[in-house]
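Office hours follow-up: a student asked to see two folded examples consecutively, so here they are.
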Amino acid sequence: MHPLGLIAASVVERENLHILLQKGVSPHDFSLRPSDIDHLQEADIIFWGGPHIEPYLSGFARRWPDKVWIDISSFSELAKIKDPHYWMSVPATLAAQKVLADTLGKDSSDFQRRVEAAVEYSDRVLEPVRERGFFVFHRAYDHWVLERGLNQVGAFTLTPEQKPGMRTVQLMREQLRAGKVACVFREPEYSPALVVTVVGDLPVKHGELDPQGAYADLSRDGYAYFLTEMADRAANCLTP
């Protein structure tokens, strides 16, 4: 996945890094192609999201135990909650990146400094809007929301494949009418039709968050930029 590629790119040269899920492709509806399996066979180290978020890799992890498999979800004890989007948790990310760096015989301290600076920046720009409520498109941001102390009121859907029921839609519209929601966030991979249907003509700001971080390049500071850009987008939409 691209966000894991952003983490790996901190210590892996671009020519040695292959991303199975390219930008804009969601792990929720992805299936491996024969060429993807070839890339897995050729790889020495596979940095992945774990069996819950990338179930299509689980069988290969059992089949090829001689390869180095670094599963970011194995660092779940460092996160405050159990949610499969562990690249959204800074402690889990730092720990997983360190294992990758150590495996390659490289230093992880530069990545840690960049991420810590991104967290400091994020907290600074988000401080004025921490109490302002918002809806996200789907439940991919829980680690980020909790670690940054934000007020996520709800999500349009648990996963992109599931549409909310009428009761959920009615509750969300009641929250919108009551002024409890300052911004609704869509995602670039999915049609905004669901968001438009729920919000209708109610006066609430719209923004865009991308849990895949497609806007960030695979570079040494790509993951840090992913964090700061997400903070900027949230702050811009939540600011009155």
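And the second, which I mentioned at the end of office hours:
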Amino acid sequence: CLAHALSTESEEIMGLLLGDLDNDELMARVWSVSLQRREQAARSDDRVEISPEQLAAATEEAERLGEHLGRPTRVVGWYHSHPHLAVVPSHVDVSTQAMYQQMDTGFIGLIFSVFNSGR
């Protein structure tokens, strides 16, 4: 995730986290990521959106990975970067996370604040 976040300084990146959730221990185990491309119609460089088609494709990717590894694997969360911004979630980030958590209460979200200097 961090390498992906550091891959561009000019716009936010995004991806989906693949792994499994242990609701009894309130723990997410992530063993892979699905890098997501920004949609051409993205409203601005500081917004990321994962389309339903991207989410469906990542779900299929997780199932294939799970078969290969011999362990259940699914989309457990999402991540994105905040280049030159604080790690604090924006109102859009909070809304996006709430939407995902309506579908799965254990769905996690990570934000990577990158390219910040002590200027």
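Two things to take away from it. The beta strands are 14-22, 27-36, 74-83, 108-114. The chain has a mean pLDDT of 89.
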